[in-house]
Design goal:
Layout (H helix, E strand, L loop, with lengths): L22 H8 L9 H24 L13 H11 L8 H13 L4 H41 L8 H10 L23
Helix pairs in contact: 3-5, 3-6, 4-5, 5-6
Amino acid sequence: MDDTPVPADDPKPQGKGRPTPKRRDAEGRRRQPVSAPKDRKEAYRQMRAKQAAERDRARKGMLAGDERYLPARDKGPARKFARDWVDSRRLPSQYFLPFSLLILLATWIPWPIQVRGLILGYVITIGWPIMMIGVVATSLYVAWKVKKLGAEKLPNESMRGVGFYAAMRALQIRKLRFPPPTVAPGGKPVAPRK
């Protein structure tokens, strides 16, 4: 044991500089009043308010693209890369749903008999096959390209299911995509929704 005295100008402080608080004082500061519900209806009301606040926080987190709040199918850097790749391009398959709606409306309009036969003939023999070939070709191209580029950019990530994920996202109308796009066509960042 060393009995050498410690110099007074020692930069290392000795102790914490204040007395240790008594246990009852420390516990008293930590405790907060508990507001227990008066009855069962009040308990349900509090529970629903808490769940609504949690859902609202999760919704805002999902719209902001916060990885913690996204569903499991949308998590991970490979899925983020696929979303950004699809969102940064205008692809023919994203017009599939509007084109289908247009074709459906054209078949519902009560045209005269000769015009109706002509429209249905063109729709069935030309419109639908061209649209389906375009959708299938675009989906295959998107799936192949995203998997290829994703494997190059993210070599340690699993690309399983990423091609299908990108192809399905490419089929959706841009404004209805979830999670919302973070890049505009051309690759520029988009301001997050609120």
